[in-house]
């Protein structure tokens, strides 16, 4: 993963404890630590690495386009963009890009 084009954030949804969202252009994913302490250590290490690499990148190289994190069908019951409920006609696999 190109860390100069990577962003990291603490997972804000309550469905996963000690999770970190990692967004990159190649692939975005969630990392789950076993404890809050490890979550903070991992987050800080990844965040600092991204910032260090970005600080040495040319100014015009800071734009970041990231891949969405894949969400299993069982997690969402409506489209994250249009907020429409999934049903027999509006199926989940048609909204994968939305999350």
Query: How does the helix and strand content classify structurally?
Result: alpha+beta
Please tally the β strands and state the result: 3
Q: What profile does the largest beta sheet have?
A: 3 strands, antiparallel
How would you classify the quaternary structure?
single chain
**Any idea of the CATH topology of the largest domain?**
PH-domain like
Helix tally? 1
Architecture of the largest domain, according to CATH? Answer: Roll
The shape, in one word, is flat
What is the H level of CATH, i.e. the homologous superfamily of the largest domain?
A: Pleckstrin-homology domain (PH domain)/Phosphotyrosine-binding domain (PTB)
Question: H/E order of the elements?
Answer: EEEH
The rounded Rg comes to 16 Å
CATH class of the largest domain, anyone?
Mainly Beta
Number of domains: 2
Question: What's the N-to-C terminus distance?
Answer: 21 Å
Strand content: 5-15%
State the strand order across the main sheet. Answer: 1-2-3
Helical residue percent band: 10-25%
Query: Mean pLDDT across all residues, rounded?
Result: 80
Unreliable parts:
none
């Amino acid at each position: 993963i190109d860390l100069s084009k990577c962003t990291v954030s603490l997972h804000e949804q309550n469905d996963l404890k000690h999770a970190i969202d990692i967004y990159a252009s190649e692939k975005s994913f969630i990392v789950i630590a076993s404890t809050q302490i490890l979550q903070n250590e991992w987050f800080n290490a990844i965040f600092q690495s991204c910032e260090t690499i970005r600080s040495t990148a040319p100014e015009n190289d800071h734009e970041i386009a990231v891949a969405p994190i894949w969400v299993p069908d069982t997690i969402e019951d409506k489209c994250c963009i249009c907020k429409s409920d999934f049903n027999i006609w509006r199926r989940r696999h048609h909204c994968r890009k939305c999350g």
